[in-house]
Write a structure and sequence with these properties.
Layout lengths: L8 H5 L3 H11 L4 H8 L3 H9 L6 H10 L4 H10 L17 H14 L4 E4 L5 E4 L4 H4 L10 H6 L11 H19 L2 H11 L22 E5 L2 E10 L7 H4 L2 E7 L2 H9 L3
Antiparallel strand pairs: 1-2, 1-5, 3-4, 4-5
């Protein structure tokens, strides 16, 4: 699964507008007629745009990106392919006008303690974390800590301590597959292929089915002689206009049972 379309990220971004438009339309499983009806333009015009017989205006590129539900990064790529400058900034988190965003993230992370929480970017790279995550990462190979999926599933990471590794691994890989479907990101495809090669000695369910009384897939971790159980909530910024902000995700882990809650509250960080 190196790439959804069998190309590298560089090759993907160098493709002509019409080719990218067609690929995104097909990736969304839309016919030219269906896209034309959604975007309220003629099927003929869609066809001319895809074949290069017509050049889109800047507004038309943005209009199509909206109706194809493209992430902001991919809308910028579509604009570049059509010969226009990107409209969505991609700001470093340490830039001055991102101060409010960083402050909000830090407030959420701190308020969630003593329970663990992390912030990741589009590639699941660790952006920030609270003190509570230290309980789960103690003893993990430091080289793995830069990427949350690698740290979770690698045999030198958290994986040997996850009681329900097969179930949790299937859950994480399923989330990554859905993200790849949404973004068609070749780099995420490469990460997925890497993770598939990590060993797992437990069955991995193809479909997440609830057991008796289950309402969520738990993360069950053994620390010493104690088993902790968590469920997670993923939050994103609701109205992003910046690529960096749009791709941030805050995953907060909550205790799934009273024993876990009591242990986390009573044990100093």
């Amino acid at each position: 699964m190196d790439s959804v379309w069998g190309v590298t990220a560089t090759q993907l971004h160098q493709r002509p507008f019409g080719e990218l438009l067609r690929q995104w339309r097909e990736h969304r499983r839309l016919s030219q007629l269906e896209l034309s009806l959604q975007a309220e333009i003629s099927t003929r015009h869609v066809s001319f745009l895809e074949t290069g017989r017509a050049k889109p205006s800047r507004d038309m590129v943005l209009h199509l990106g909206e109706h194809l539900s493209l992430p902001l990064r991919e809308r910028n790529h579509l604009l570049l392919a059509a010969g226009y400058a990107p409209v969505y900034t991609e700001s470093p988190l340490d830039s001055p006008h991102m101060a409010a965003v960083c402050a909000a993230i830090r407030q959420l992370l701190t308020a969630h303690e003593p329970y663990p929480a992390v912030v990741v970017d589009r590639g699941w790279n660790l952006v920030d974390a609270n003190e509570g995550i230290g309980r789960l990462t103690e003893g993990i190979d430091p080289d793995l800590l830069g990427n949350v999926l690698r740290a979770s599933l690698h045999p030198d990471g958290l994986a040997p301590h996850i009681v329900n590794l097969g179930e949790w691994r299937a859950h994480l890989l399923g989330r990554l597959r859905r993200q790849i479907t949404q973004t068609a990101d070749p780099e995420l495809g490469e990460l997925y292929a890497e993770l598939l090669d990590y060993p797992c000695d437990q069955p991995e369910p193809e479909v997440e089915l609830p057991g008796p009384g289950d309402i969520l897939v738990p993360l069950r971790v053994r620390l010493g002689d104690r088993e902790l159980s968590f469920f997670s909530v993923v939050a994103t910024f609701g109205t992003p206009l910046d690529v960096t902000v749009a791709e941030l995700a805050i995953e907060s882990f909550f205790p799934a049972d009273p024993d876990t809650a009591a242990f986390l509250r009573d044990t100093p960080l």
